Amino acid sequence: MKINYFCTLMGFRGLLLFLLCIPAFVGCRVYSFSGATIEGKDLNIHLLENKAQNVMPSLAATLTDKLRSRILSQTGLSPVTRDDADYDISGAIVGYTVTVTAATNVQTATKNRLTISIKITFKNRKNEKAGFTQTFTRFADFDASQTLQTVESTLIDDIGNQLADDIFNKAFVNW
To answer: pTM for this structure?
Structure first.
């Protein structure tokens, strides 16, 4: 009888001690499974401007949606459209180019490369030092026998995912 009472009492005390220690480990920050540290509760992502010399009409909306989806799915932040959000992301597409990356000995292109660059301004109102302005660039190669129009949506999808990952990591994981 005394042993069962002792185990029950210790189990209750252990649980109580554990529950009291949780705030000490968590503090005021929220940690996600992606490794992100989130101190705020809301996020404003502005539509990216398309300032590239070559303009693909739906590119700004596509890349903005990819960035928004990546961040919101990994952080639990609430999307808002006001200018005083805890986190604010704005930017512009500053590069959209196709170049030759490989050629045969008779000066015929065998591979082409689509490169997209985005200049991002990230504001962290919870920690001003964590803000940044940086240009992110990614590319994808495609066979020169294909036209850009036939592979463009697939390439943009791949490059957009890579750019969204890079921006997310810089803003919230600080890699």
So the answer is: 0.77
